[in-house]
Amino acid sequence: MAKINNVVEIRRNILYRLAKLILNDELEEKIDRLPLEMYPKNAQHTRCCIHKARAVVKYKTMAVMGFNVDDEKDELDPLSYYAHLFKQREESTEVMLTVVDEACSSCVKSSYIVTNLCRSCIAHPCTYACKKGAMTKNEGQQAFIDTSKCVNCGLCMEACPYHAIIFQPVPCEEACPVGAIAKRADGIEIIDPQKCIYCGKCMVACPFGAIFEKSFMVDIIRKIRKGKQVIAMVAPSLGGQFPYEYKKVLTAIKTLGFSDVVEVAKGANMTTENETKEFEHRMKRGDSFMTTSCCASWRELIKKHLPEIEPYVSDALTPMGYTAKWLRENNPEAVLVFVSPCVGKRSECHKNPDVDFVLSYEELEAMIKAADIDIDSLEPTELDNTILGHGRGFAMVSGVTASVKKTAKDPSMVHDIVIDGLTKQTIRQLKQYAVSGEAPANFIEVMACNGGCVNGCDTINAPKVAARQILPTTK
Questions:
Q1: Cβ contacts of 152 within 8 Å, gap of 6 or more
Q2: What whole-number distance in Å separates Cα of residue 159 and Cα of residue 331?
Q3: Do domains 6-106+172-215 and 111-168 have the same CATH topology?
Q4: What is the mean pLDDT of the chain?
Q5: pLDDT tens-digit map of 368-426
Q6: If phi over 0 gives left and psi between -120 and 50 gives alpha, with beta otherwise, what is residue 61?
Q7: What are the pLDDT digits (tens) for 83-95?
Q8: Quick check: 296 pLDDT over 60?
Q9: CA-to-CA distance for 200 and 360, rounded, in angstroms?
Q10: How many whole angstroms separate alpha carbon 80 and alpha carbon 43?
Q11: How far is CA 184 from CA 94, 106, 107, 304, 305, in A?
Protein backbone atom coordinates (compact mmCIF):
# COMPACT_ATOMS: atom_id res chain seq x y z
CA MET A 1 0.00 0.00 0.00
CA ALA A 2 1.16 3.50 -0.79
CA LYS A 3 1.52 5.22 2.58
CA ILE A 4 -0.47 8.44 2.72
CA ASN A 5 1.82 11.32 1.81
CA ASN A 6 1.78 14.38 -0.42
CA VAL A 7 2.58 12.37 -3.56
CA VAL A 8 -0.40 10.07 -2.94
CA GLU A 9 -2.68 13.02 -2.16
CA ILE A 10 -1.71 14.71 -5.45
CA ARG A 11 -2.36 11.51 -7.42
CA ARG A 12 -5.76 11.02 -5.82
CA ASN A 13 -6.61 14.67 -6.37
CA ILE A 14 -5.92 14.29 -10.10
CA LEU A 15 -8.06 11.14 -10.26
CA TYR A 16 -10.93 12.88 -8.46
CA ARG A 17 -10.83 16.00 -10.65
CA LEU A 18 -10.67 13.98 -13.85
CA ALA A 19 -13.55 11.74 -12.77
CA LYS A 20 -15.57 14.85 -11.93
CA LEU A 21 -14.95 16.34 -15.38
CA ILE A 22 -16.04 13.28 -17.32
CA LEU A 23 -19.06 12.62 -15.09
CA ASN A 24 -20.15 16.20 -15.79
CA ASP A 25 -19.45 15.87 -19.56
CA GLU A 26 -16.84 18.65 -19.29
CA LEU A 27 -13.65 16.74 -20.16
CA GLU A 28 -12.57 18.48 -23.38
CA GLU A 29 -14.05 21.78 -22.31
CA LYS A 30 -12.30 22.19 -18.94
CA ILE A 31 -9.38 19.74 -18.78
CA ASP A 32 -6.81 22.36 -19.84
CA ARG A 33 -7.54 24.27 -16.64
CA LEU A 34 -6.89 21.27 -14.38
CA PRO A 35 -3.16 22.01 -13.78
CA LEU A 36 -3.95 25.69 -13.17
CA GLU A 37 -6.72 24.86 -10.71
CA MET A 38 -4.41 22.54 -8.77
CA TYR A 39 -1.64 25.16 -8.76
CA PRO A 40 -3.21 28.62 -9.11
CA LYS A 41 -1.04 31.72 -9.25
CA ASN A 42 1.05 32.22 -6.09
CA ALA A 43 0.08 28.77 -4.78
CA GLN A 44 2.56 26.76 -2.72
CA HIS A 45 4.35 23.99 -4.60
CA THR A 46 7.33 21.69 -4.19
CA ARG A 47 8.92 22.08 -7.64
CA CYS A 48 11.45 24.65 -8.82
CA CYS A 49 8.62 26.84 -10.13
CA ILE A 50 4.87 26.76 -10.49
CA HIS A 51 5.18 26.13 -14.23
CA LYS A 52 7.01 22.87 -13.63
CA ALA A 53 4.45 21.84 -11.01
CA ARG A 54 1.73 22.39 -13.61
CA ALA A 55 3.70 20.47 -16.26
CA VAL A 56 3.98 17.50 -13.90
CA VAL A 57 0.21 17.55 -13.38
CA LYS A 58 -0.29 17.64 -17.15
CA TYR A 59 1.78 14.50 -17.74
CA LYS A 60 0.21 12.66 -14.80
CA THR A 61 -3.22 13.54 -16.19
CA MET A 62 -2.15 12.09 -19.54
CA ALA A 63 -1.33 8.82 -17.74
CA VAL A 64 -4.74 8.79 -16.06
CA MET A 65 -6.28 9.06 -19.54
CA GLY A 66 -4.30 5.97 -20.54
CA PHE A 67 -1.39 7.57 -22.43
CA ASN A 68 2.32 6.92 -21.98
CA VAL A 69 4.33 10.08 -21.45
CA ASP A 70 6.31 9.02 -24.51
CA ASP A 71 3.12 9.41 -26.55
CA GLU A 72 3.59 13.19 -26.49
CA LYS A 73 4.44 14.52 -29.97
CA ASP A 74 4.58 18.23 -29.20
CA GLU A 75 4.99 19.90 -25.79
CA LEU A 76 2.53 22.58 -26.86
CA ASP A 77 -0.29 20.09 -27.35
CA PRO A 78 -2.83 20.84 -24.58
CA LEU A 79 -4.59 18.24 -22.46
CA SER A 80 -7.77 18.83 -24.47
CA TYR A 81 -5.91 17.44 -27.50
CA TYR A 82 -5.29 14.19 -25.63
CA ALA A 83 -8.88 14.17 -24.37
CA HIS A 84 -9.94 14.30 -28.02
CA LEU A 85 -7.54 11.46 -28.93
CA PHE A 86 -8.83 9.46 -26.00
CA LYS A 87 -12.38 9.57 -27.36
CA GLN A 88 -11.15 8.02 -30.62
CA ARG A 89 -8.93 5.40 -28.97
CA GLU A 90 -10.05 1.78 -29.11
CA GLU A 91 -6.84 -0.04 -28.11
CA SER A 92 -4.13 0.35 -25.50
CA THR A 93 -0.51 -0.76 -25.24
CA GLU A 94 0.85 -3.36 -22.86
CA VAL A 95 3.03 -0.79 -21.04
CA MET A 96 1.26 -0.09 -17.73
CA LEU A 97 3.82 2.05 -15.89
CA THR A 98 5.25 5.30 -17.21
CA VAL A 99 7.91 7.65 -15.84
CA VAL A 100 6.99 11.34 -15.83
CA ASP A 101 10.40 12.77 -16.69
CA GLU A 102 9.38 16.26 -15.57
CA ALA A 103 8.75 14.84 -12.09
CA CYS A 104 11.87 12.64 -11.89
CA SER A 105 14.55 14.31 -9.76
CA SER A 106 17.42 12.28 -11.31
CA CYS A 107 18.50 10.94 -7.92
CA VAL A 108 22.25 10.54 -7.39
CA LYS A 109 23.41 7.03 -8.24
CA SER A 110 23.34 4.62 -5.30
CA SER A 111 26.52 4.98 -3.23
CA TYR A 112 27.97 5.28 0.26
CA ILE A 113 28.59 8.82 1.43
CA VAL A 114 30.28 10.41 4.45
CA THR A 115 27.99 12.78 6.33
CA ASN A 116 28.96 15.73 8.54
CA LEU A 117 28.69 13.41 11.55
CA CYS A 118 32.29 12.34 10.84
CA ARG A 119 34.42 13.25 13.89
CA SER A 120 37.82 12.93 12.17
CA CYS A 121 38.78 10.30 14.72
CA ILE A 122 42.38 9.20 15.03
CA ALA A 123 41.59 5.49 14.59
CA HIS A 124 40.01 5.95 11.15
CA PRO A 125 38.56 2.41 11.23
CA CYS A 126 36.68 3.12 7.99
CA THR A 127 39.96 3.55 6.10
CA TYR A 128 41.31 0.23 7.36
CA ALA A 129 38.01 -1.53 6.63
CA CYS A 130 38.07 -0.55 2.95
CA LYS A 131 39.86 -3.20 0.85
CA LYS A 132 39.84 -1.19 -2.38
CA GLY A 133 41.62 1.99 -1.27
CA ALA A 134 38.50 4.05 -1.83
CA MET A 135 38.44 5.53 1.68
CA THR A 136 40.87 8.40 2.26
CA LYS A 137 41.16 11.56 4.39
CA ASN A 138 40.61 15.10 3.23
CA GLU A 139 42.65 18.10 4.43
CA GLY A 140 40.58 18.33 7.60
CA GLN A 141 41.30 14.65 8.33
CA GLN A 142 37.66 13.77 7.68
CA ALA A 143 36.83 10.55 5.84
CA PHE A 144 36.34 10.86 2.10
CA ILE A 145 35.16 8.22 -0.40
CA ASP A 146 36.66 8.06 -3.88
CA THR A 147 33.61 6.90 -5.85
CA SER A 148 35.78 5.75 -8.78
CA LYS A 149 37.25 3.04 -6.53
CA CYS A 150 34.26 2.28 -4.30
CA VAL A 151 32.53 -1.07 -4.95
CA ASN A 152 29.62 -0.38 -2.56
CA CYS A 153 30.57 -3.22 -0.19
CA GLY A 154 29.47 -1.27 2.90
CA LEU A 155 32.42 -2.29 5.08
CA CYS A 156 33.26 1.34 5.85
CA MET A 157 29.72 1.99 7.08
CA GLU A 158 29.88 -1.05 9.36
CA ALA A 159 33.23 0.08 10.77
CA CYS A 160 32.33 3.69 11.60
CA PRO A 161 31.62 4.02 15.35
CA TYR A 162 29.68 7.27 14.83
CA HIS A 163 27.39 5.99 12.06
CA ALA A 164 28.69 8.86 9.97
CA ILE A 165 28.65 6.86 6.73
CA ILE A 166 25.34 6.05 5.11
CA PHE A 167 24.12 4.32 1.99
CA GLN A 168 22.16 6.66 -0.24
CA PRO A 169 20.02 4.60 -2.63
CA VAL A 170 17.92 5.56 -5.61
CA PRO A 171 14.54 4.71 -4.05
CA CYS A 172 12.85 3.28 -7.15
CA GLU A 173 15.88 1.22 -8.17
CA GLU A 174 16.31 -0.04 -4.62
CA ALA A 175 12.66 -1.11 -4.45
CA CYS A 176 12.58 -2.96 -7.78
CA PRO A 177 13.25 -6.68 -7.16
CA VAL A 178 14.19 -7.44 -10.78
CA GLY A 179 16.33 -4.48 -11.91
CA ALA A 180 13.70 -3.27 -14.37
CA ILE A 181 14.27 0.44 -13.72
CA ALA A 182 17.51 2.31 -14.40
CA LYS A 183 18.83 5.68 -15.50
CA ARG A 184 19.09 6.73 -19.10
CA ALA A 185 21.90 8.99 -20.30
CA ASP A 186 20.33 12.20 -18.93
CA GLY A 187 19.75 10.72 -15.46
CA ILE A 188 16.00 10.21 -15.83
CA GLU A 189 14.74 6.79 -14.79
CA ILE A 190 13.26 4.53 -17.43
CA ILE A 191 11.35 1.25 -17.01
CA ASP A 192 12.26 -1.70 -19.20
CA PRO A 193 8.95 -3.43 -20.08
CA GLN A 194 10.88 -6.60 -20.98
CA LYS A 195 11.97 -6.87 -17.32
CA CYS A 196 9.13 -5.19 -15.41
CA ILE A 197 6.82 -7.52 -13.46
CA TYR A 198 4.36 -4.71 -12.61
CA CYS A 199 4.59 -5.16 -8.85
CA GLY A 200 4.30 -1.37 -8.40
CA LYS A 201 7.06 -1.22 -5.80
CA CYS A 202 8.93 1.51 -7.72
CA MET A 203 5.78 3.63 -7.92
CA VAL A 204 5.24 3.42 -4.16
CA ALA A 205 8.94 4.07 -3.42
CA CYS A 206 9.43 7.21 -5.55
CA PRO A 207 9.23 10.23 -3.19
CA PHE A 208 8.65 12.60 -6.14
CA GLY A 209 5.70 10.71 -7.61
CA ALA A 210 7.48 10.41 -10.94
CA ILE A 211 6.20 6.90 -11.68
CA PHE A 212 2.57 6.70 -12.68
CA GLU A 213 0.43 3.81 -13.77
CA LYS A 214 -1.73 4.10 -16.84
CA SER A 215 -5.39 4.27 -16.00
CA PHE A 216 -8.56 3.19 -17.78
CA MET A 217 -10.91 5.03 -15.42
CA VAL A 218 -11.94 7.48 -18.11
CA ASP A 219 -12.59 4.65 -20.58
CA ILE A 220 -14.79 2.86 -18.05
CA ILE A 221 -16.86 5.96 -17.27
CA ARG A 222 -17.28 6.54 -21.01
CA LYS A 223 -18.65 2.99 -21.48
CA ILE A 224 -21.09 3.48 -18.60
CA ARG A 225 -22.25 6.84 -19.99
CA LYS A 226 -22.88 5.21 -23.36
CA GLY A 227 -25.31 2.81 -21.72
CA LYS A 228 -23.18 -0.30 -22.14
CA GLN A 229 -23.68 -3.30 -19.88
CA VAL A 230 -20.64 -2.85 -17.61
CA ILE A 231 -20.04 -5.51 -14.96
CA ALA A 232 -17.65 -4.93 -12.06
CA MET A 233 -15.65 -7.93 -10.84
CA VAL A 234 -14.41 -7.02 -7.36
CA ALA A 235 -11.26 -8.58 -5.89
CA PRO A 236 -11.59 -10.19 -2.42
CA SER A 237 -9.39 -7.48 -0.88
CA LEU A 238 -12.01 -4.80 -1.64
CA GLY A 239 -13.88 -5.93 1.45
CA GLY A 240 -11.36 -4.18 3.67
CA GLN A 241 -10.77 -0.94 1.79
CA PHE A 242 -13.57 1.45 2.79
CA PRO A 243 -14.63 2.39 6.34
CA TYR A 244 -18.18 1.29 5.53
CA GLU A 245 -20.12 -1.95 5.45
CA TYR A 246 -18.83 -4.03 2.53
CA LYS A 247 -22.36 -4.69 1.24
CA LYS A 248 -22.95 -0.94 0.97
CA VAL A 249 -19.70 -0.47 -0.95
CA LEU A 250 -21.04 -2.95 -3.51
CA THR A 251 -24.21 -0.85 -3.76
CA ALA A 252 -22.08 2.26 -4.30
CA ILE A 253 -20.44 0.56 -7.29
CA LYS A 254 -23.87 -0.15 -8.77
CA THR A 255 -24.87 3.46 -8.10
CA LEU A 256 -21.97 4.55 -10.32
CA GLY A 257 -23.76 2.85 -13.22
CA PHE A 258 -22.33 -0.66 -13.20
CA SER A 259 -25.07 -3.09 -14.22
CA ASP A 260 -23.88 -5.75 -11.81
CA VAL A 261 -21.18 -6.45 -9.22
CA VAL A 262 -19.66 -9.92 -8.98
CA GLU A 263 -17.26 -11.08 -6.28
CA VAL A 264 -14.05 -12.56 -7.67
CA ALA A 265 -14.08 -14.74 -4.56
CA LYS A 266 -16.26 -16.96 -6.77
CA GLY A 267 -13.29 -17.42 -9.11
CA ALA A 268 -10.98 -17.82 -6.11
CA ASN A 269 -12.94 -20.91 -5.11
CA MET A 270 -12.51 -22.25 -8.65
CA THR A 271 -8.77 -21.59 -8.40
CA THR A 272 -8.71 -23.47 -5.09
CA GLU A 273 -10.54 -26.48 -6.50
CA ASN A 274 -8.25 -26.72 -9.52
CA GLU A 275 -5.03 -26.08 -7.60
CA THR A 276 -6.01 -28.69 -5.02
CA LYS A 277 -6.74 -31.36 -7.64
CA GLU A 278 -3.55 -30.51 -9.49
CA PHE A 279 -1.50 -30.58 -6.28
CA GLU A 280 -2.85 -34.00 -5.32
CA HIS A 281 -2.13 -35.31 -8.83
CA ARG A 282 1.43 -33.91 -8.81
CA MET A 283 2.21 -35.40 -5.41
CA LYS A 284 0.95 -38.83 -6.51
CA ARG A 285 3.22 -38.80 -9.54
CA GLY A 286 6.20 -37.86 -7.37
CA ASP A 287 6.69 -34.12 -7.95
CA SER A 288 8.75 -32.48 -5.21
CA PHE A 289 6.67 -29.28 -4.94
CA MET A 290 4.12 -26.99 -6.59
CA THR A 291 3.64 -23.22 -6.38
CA THR A 292 0.45 -21.19 -6.58
CA SER A 293 -0.53 -19.23 -9.67
CA CYS A 294 -2.95 -16.49 -8.59
CA CYS A 295 -0.55 -13.50 -8.32
CA ALA A 296 -0.16 -11.62 -11.62
CA SER A 297 3.28 -10.20 -10.77
CA TRP A 298 4.48 -13.69 -9.81
CA ARG A 299 3.42 -14.95 -13.25
CA GLU A 300 5.28 -12.05 -14.89
CA LEU A 301 8.39 -12.93 -12.87
CA ILE A 302 8.23 -16.53 -14.08
CA LYS A 303 7.91 -15.52 -17.71
CA LYS A 304 10.60 -12.84 -17.71
CA HIS A 305 13.12 -13.89 -15.07
CA LEU A 306 12.48 -17.35 -13.68
CA PRO A 307 11.51 -19.78 -16.48
CA GLU A 308 13.27 -22.59 -14.57
CA ILE A 309 10.42 -22.75 -12.08
CA GLU A 310 7.57 -22.86 -14.60
CA PRO A 311 7.26 -26.70 -14.49
CA TYR A 312 6.49 -26.39 -10.77
CA VAL A 313 3.81 -23.68 -11.11
CA SER A 314 0.13 -24.58 -10.99
CA ASP A 315 -1.71 -24.48 -14.31
CA ALA A 316 -4.83 -23.09 -12.63
CA LEU A 317 -6.14 -19.73 -13.77
CA THR A 318 -6.18 -16.76 -11.44
CA PRO A 319 -9.44 -15.92 -9.61
CA MET A 320 -9.95 -13.05 -12.06
CA GLY A 321 -9.39 -15.45 -14.97
CA TYR A 322 -12.04 -17.93 -13.83
CA THR A 323 -14.56 -15.23 -12.90
CA ALA A 324 -14.14 -13.45 -16.24
CA LYS A 325 -14.41 -16.70 -18.18
CA TRP A 326 -17.66 -17.58 -16.42
CA LEU A 327 -19.10 -14.09 -16.94
CA ARG A 328 -18.05 -13.93 -20.59
CA GLU A 329 -19.83 -17.21 -21.33
CA ASN A 330 -23.02 -15.81 -19.83
CA ASN A 331 -22.63 -12.15 -20.93
CA PRO A 332 -20.79 -12.20 -24.29
CA GLU A 333 -21.47 -8.52 -25.06
CA ALA A 334 -20.79 -7.08 -21.62
CA VAL A 335 -17.85 -4.86 -20.69
CA LEU A 336 -16.03 -6.66 -17.88
CA VAL A 337 -14.09 -4.51 -15.40
CA PHE A 338 -11.86 -5.97 -12.71
CA VAL A 339 -11.70 -3.80 -9.58
CA SER A 340 -8.12 -4.29 -8.44
CA PRO A 341 -5.63 -3.67 -5.61
CA CYS A 342 -2.54 -3.55 -7.87
CA VAL A 343 -1.00 -2.61 -11.19
CA GLY A 344 -0.07 -6.24 -11.90
CA LYS A 345 -3.68 -6.98 -12.78
CA ARG A 346 -3.58 -4.33 -15.52
CA SER A 347 -0.96 -6.39 -17.30
CA GLU A 348 -2.93 -9.61 -16.79
CA CYS A 349 -6.06 -7.91 -18.10
CA HIS A 350 -4.26 -6.82 -21.28
CA LYS A 351 -3.39 -10.47 -22.01
CA ASN A 352 -6.83 -11.86 -21.09
CA PRO A 353 -9.42 -11.45 -23.88
CA ASP A 354 -12.24 -11.96 -21.38
CA VAL A 355 -11.39 -8.82 -19.38
CA ASP A 356 -11.84 -5.36 -20.87
CA PHE A 357 -10.56 -2.96 -18.20
CA VAL A 358 -9.06 -2.74 -14.71
CA LEU A 359 -10.16 -0.15 -12.17
CA SER A 360 -7.92 0.41 -9.15
CA TYR A 361 -9.22 0.99 -5.63
CA GLU A 362 -7.85 4.55 -5.77
CA GLU A 363 -9.78 5.18 -8.97
CA LEU A 364 -12.95 3.65 -7.55
CA GLU A 365 -12.67 5.92 -4.51
CA ALA A 366 -12.20 8.95 -6.81
CA MET A 367 -15.29 8.02 -8.85
CA ILE A 368 -17.45 7.58 -5.74
CA LYS A 369 -16.33 10.95 -4.38
CA ALA A 370 -16.78 12.67 -7.75
CA ALA A 371 -20.33 11.29 -8.00
CA ASP A 372 -21.11 12.58 -4.48
CA ILE A 373 -22.25 9.15 -3.31
CA ASP A 374 -22.90 8.83 0.43
CA ILE A 375 -22.02 5.16 0.98
CA ASP A 376 -23.37 5.08 4.53
CA SER A 377 -26.88 6.03 3.37
CA LEU A 378 -27.15 3.21 0.80
CA GLU A 379 -29.02 -0.05 1.15
CA PRO A 380 -26.71 -3.08 1.36
CA THR A 381 -26.29 -5.49 -1.55
CA GLU A 382 -26.69 -9.07 -0.45
CA LEU A 383 -23.60 -11.21 -0.88
CA ASP A 384 -23.65 -14.29 -3.08
CA ASN A 385 -24.37 -17.13 -0.64
CA THR A 386 -23.05 -19.71 -3.09
CA ILE A 387 -19.51 -18.41 -2.53
CA LEU A 388 -17.54 -20.37 0.02
CA GLY A 389 -16.11 -18.01 2.61
CA HIS A 390 -12.51 -19.15 2.25
CA GLY A 391 -12.37 -17.77 -1.33
CA ARG A 392 -12.51 -14.29 0.21
CA GLY A 393 -9.41 -15.21 2.22
CA PHE A 394 -7.29 -14.94 -0.95
CA ALA A 395 -6.95 -11.27 -0.01
CA MET A 396 -4.49 -12.09 2.77
CA VAL A 397 -1.15 -13.86 2.78
CA SER A 398 -1.58 -17.60 3.50
CA GLY A 399 -5.19 -17.34 2.32
CA VAL A 400 -4.59 -19.50 -0.74
CA THR A 401 -2.83 -22.13 1.36
CA ALA A 402 -5.66 -22.16 3.90
CA SER A 403 -8.17 -22.64 1.07
CA VAL A 404 -6.25 -25.58 -0.40
CA LYS A 405 -5.97 -27.24 3.02
CA LYS A 406 -9.73 -26.91 3.53
CA THR A 407 -10.40 -28.42 0.10
CA ALA A 408 -7.81 -31.20 0.04
CA LYS A 409 -8.94 -34.79 0.72
CA ASP A 410 -6.03 -35.16 3.12
CA PRO A 411 -4.97 -31.74 4.50
CA SER A 412 -2.01 -33.32 6.30
CA MET A 413 -0.26 -33.93 2.97
CA VAL A 414 0.00 -30.15 2.40
CA HIS A 415 3.36 -29.01 3.79
CA ASP A 416 3.56 -25.32 2.99
CA ILE A 417 5.83 -22.31 3.00
CA VAL A 418 4.79 -18.80 2.04
CA ILE A 419 6.82 -16.28 0.04
CA ASP A 420 5.44 -13.14 1.68
CA GLY A 421 6.55 -10.51 -0.83
CA LEU A 422 8.83 -10.69 -3.86
CA THR A 423 12.26 -9.25 -3.11
CA LYS A 424 15.73 -9.84 -4.51
CA GLN A 425 16.30 -12.32 -1.69
CA THR A 426 13.07 -14.30 -2.10
CA ILE A 427 13.57 -14.45 -5.87
CA ARG A 428 17.03 -15.98 -5.32
CA GLN A 429 15.39 -18.42 -2.91
CA LEU A 430 12.80 -19.46 -5.51
CA LYS A 431 15.46 -19.79 -8.19
CA GLN A 432 17.41 -22.14 -5.93
CA TYR A 433 14.31 -24.33 -5.51
CA ALA A 434 13.82 -24.42 -9.27
CA VAL A 435 17.43 -25.24 -10.14
CA SER A 436 17.80 -27.94 -7.49
CA GLY A 437 14.30 -29.32 -7.96
CA GLU A 438 13.97 -29.43 -4.19
CA ALA A 439 12.15 -27.20 -1.70
CA PRO A 440 11.62 -27.33 2.08
CA ALA A 441 7.88 -27.83 1.49
CA ASN A 442 5.68 -29.33 -1.21
CA PHE A 443 3.24 -26.41 -1.52
CA ILE A 444 4.61 -22.88 -1.99
CA GLU A 445 2.32 -19.86 -1.93
CA VAL A 446 3.82 -16.80 -3.63
CA MET A 447 2.57 -13.25 -3.09
CA ALA A 448 4.28 -10.21 -4.63
CA CYS A 449 3.12 -7.91 -1.82
CA ASN A 450 3.89 -8.33 1.88
CA GLY A 451 0.72 -9.36 3.62
CA GLY A 452 -1.01 -10.26 0.35
CA CYS A 453 -3.42 -8.31 -1.85
CA VAL A 454 -4.57 -6.15 1.07
CA ASN A 455 -1.18 -4.46 0.70
CA GLY A 456 -1.26 -3.94 -3.08
CA CYS A 457 0.15 -0.71 -4.50
CA ASP A 458 -3.35 0.65 -5.26
CA THR A 459 -5.01 -0.12 -1.93
CA ILE A 460 -6.44 2.70 0.17
CA ASN A 461 -6.54 1.22 3.67
CA ALA A 462 -3.85 -0.01 6.04
CA PRO A 463 -3.30 -3.72 5.29
CA LYS A 464 -3.75 -4.97 8.86
CA VAL A 465 -6.97 -2.97 9.26
CA ALA A 466 -8.21 -4.25 5.89
CA ALA A 467 -7.45 -7.85 6.87
CA ARG A 468 -9.44 -7.48 10.10
CA GLN A 469 -12.43 -6.16 8.14
CA ILE A 470 -12.32 -9.08 5.68
CA LEU A 471 -11.84 -11.92 8.19
CA PRO A 472 -15.51 -12.18 9.32
CA THR A 473 -16.62 -12.83 5.70
CA THR A 474 -14.18 -15.74 5.27
CA LYS A 475 -15.92 -17.99 7.79
A1: 110, 111, 112, 167
A2: 65
A3: yes
A4: 92
A5: 999 999 999 999 998 887 776 788 899 999 999 999 999 999 999 999 999 999 999 99
A6: alpha
A7: 888 877 766 667 7
A8: yes
A9: 12
A10: 23
A11: 21, 10, 12, 21, 22
Backbone angles phi, psi at 99, to 5 degrees: -95, 125
pTM value is 0.91
Right CATH for 111-168 from 3.30.70.20, 1.10.760.10, 3.30.1380.20, 3.30.70.3040:
3.30.70.20
Task: Say what the pLDDT of residue 68 is.
Answer: 79
Q: Exposed, middle or buried by CB within 10 Å (0-12, 13-18, 19+), for 105?
A: middle
Could you confirm whether domain 6-106+172-215 is CATH 3.40.50.10860? no
- Domain spans, the chain: 6-106+172-215, 111-168, 228-474
Q: Which residue has the higher pLDDT, 143 or 70?
A: 143
For 147, other C-beta atoms within 10 Å of its C-beta total 12
